[in-house]
Amino acid sequence: MLSESEGYDLLKGYGVPVPQYRIVMTPHDAADAAETIGFPVVMKIISPQIVHKSDAGGVVVGVGSREAAVAAFEKIISGAKKYNNDAEIKGVIVEQQAEPGLELIIGGKTDPAFGKVLTFGMGGTLVELMKDITLRILPLDEETVRQMVKEINGYPLITGYRGMKPKDEEALVSTLMAVNRFFLENENVVEFDINPLRLYEQGALAVDARVIVT
Ligand code: ADP
Ligand code: MG
């Protein structure tokens, strides 16, 4: 599994919008990084053994000061050790905190019969519960991507539900096309997910990336 930052770097190269970030190894550097990026920031554990970072107390959002960054660093490291004492800790990622938005998921897997498949749907922590996901075999053309977007049950949340302003469907389509290219062109990528991708009235931002390579 690639680290979150390696996932971001790879995805960014294909045009997927990702947050600004720094990787730090000490509380002091965490405070410096947070100050450079600009408060508030989100801080997360980096460990190949910790796949679901929140489960390990490994995600702190809303870090608003140098003191808070120091405290968050210590909390994240001690949480990770408590969760799995054998987990190899590669540091802490300090990220630009994204505005709230509609949380979507874009995923990929390799099916033994069909090959590379792209999934898209409602994301965030409710993803398991909602099961509002659509999928297609790669490669995808733009028309297919537009169909995928329209066929999820949550589509009205994108076009503007009950007075909510419409979200940036074009940014979503271009992100899906970028992810399609990323998956096609990287033979060694067998599975990945971007959960969540936050979609806004203008633009989108991936705020987590998990990429599995062979
Ligand atoms: P996990 O490994 O538990 O999936 P995530 O990186 O997805 O960890 O973080 C958990 C949640 O924290 C996300 O679903 C998102 O709501 C929020 N979050 C994570 N990163 C950011 C960020 N950079 N800005 C704002 N919210 C974030
Ligand atoms: Mg996640």
Automatic annotation (TrEMBL):
All copies of domain ATP-grasp, residue ranges: 8-44
Residues spanning the signal sequence: none
Protein name per Swiss-Prot or TrEMBL: acetate--CoA ligase (ADP-forming)
Domain of life: Archaea
Coiled coil segments of this chain: none
Organism in which the protein naturally occurs: Methanoregula formicica (strain DSM 22288 / NBRC 105244 / SMSP)
